[in-house]
Structure formats: structure tokens, C-alpha cells
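Render UMP-CMP kinase 2, mitochondrial in 3D.
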Amino acid sequence: QCAARLPEAEAVLDLLEKCPEHQEKGSFPVVVFEGLDATGKTTVTQSVKDTLNGVLLRSPPACISHWRTIFDDEPAPIKRAFYAAGNYILASEIAKASTQAPVIIDRYWHSTAAYTIATEINGKVQDLPPIHDEVYQWPEDLLKPDLVLLLTVDPEERVQRLQRRGMEKTKEEAELEANSLFRQRVEESYRRMVNPACQEVDASPSKEEVLNTVLQLIKKHCAL
């Protein structure tokens, strides 16, 4: 409905329509990294990609990520539709890449779902939908990864990392920093996701230690 007003929305829908309806994963493992900003996703995903000779993909995918700032300023339903569509477009890239090499992904469906749930529900963690609610289920028609790793760090450490970066804050990040209840809702939503669930990884230690932990989990859960 917003395509007439927003040419970028029409372009996203065109890309979505070109994606095959059923995405089949290739024989190589697909590993997703989730977590709040400054939990080390960029560093870890790059290191794992290099170690495994893999392919690194991100959500939203490169073909639409340059429109992200446009959709972030739109009303919540349009913004969410952009990120959801991005996951399905990304799935077709994953399907292709996983026939040739291990695929490492910086955010995927769990991010879209966790932030949506945390935004829609006000209040404390107790106010979130109950643990077995269908909102925490992976969509049946979306290509599933083999493993989802949730990187976590102590809230104070995360803020210090962000300050050291000195980068401009996203709207999401400003909200996370200003509103600890929002941050708690996002993190708890991640933990409640199922099929596949997130495996939590403490990303506070050194880069080498975190990489070692991550590689051991990939070895344990994926056929490498």
C-alpha cells in the first residue's frame, strides 16, 4: 500500500517476488550471530568467516541495506515489513551460498522478531508474551540456519564499547541505552526464541577466547 508513496518499497517487493518460494539449504553449515550492538558481532563474524573459508552475509542484505535509513523513519508496520522482507531476500542468498561454502550471518529473523516484540510490548519482562507463545516460533516458510549464537556482554561493558567506538547511535541503540526495560525485553525475547533456539555465548572475554568458544560450538552442532 505504501509503494505509491515510497518507490523503495516497490523495489523491495520486486526483489522479494523474484525469490523462489521454497528455499533449500545447501550442504554447508549456516550459522547466525545475534546480539545487541557492541557485543562483538562484526569482529566475530569476520573471524569465523576467515577461519572457515566461509561466506559472510548480513541482514538486511546488501541489495536493500542502503534503504535502511529511509525505512527506519517510517511508521513501525512499514519498518517491520522492510526487515521481514529482507530476511526472505537474504534466505535466497543463503540457499545459493550454502551450496559452495559455510555461511556466516550477521543477524537474521531472530533480530527482527526480538525487536518487534520488545517494541510492541511496554513494561517489564513479565509483560512479554508467555514463553511458548507462537511469536517466538521460526516462520515455517523461511530457510532455517543450523545454529544461532547469541552474543551477550554485561550492559555496562557494552555501553563502554559503544563510547569507545564513537559512532553515531542508531534509533534502536539510543532506545536501548535510555531504556533498560526495553533492552531487557529484547534480550529476553532472544532467549525465548525456539526452533531454532539461540545458544548464548559470553562475549566479554578476549576476541581469541570468544572465537575459540564459537568455533567449538560450530564444530559440535554443525557437520564440518
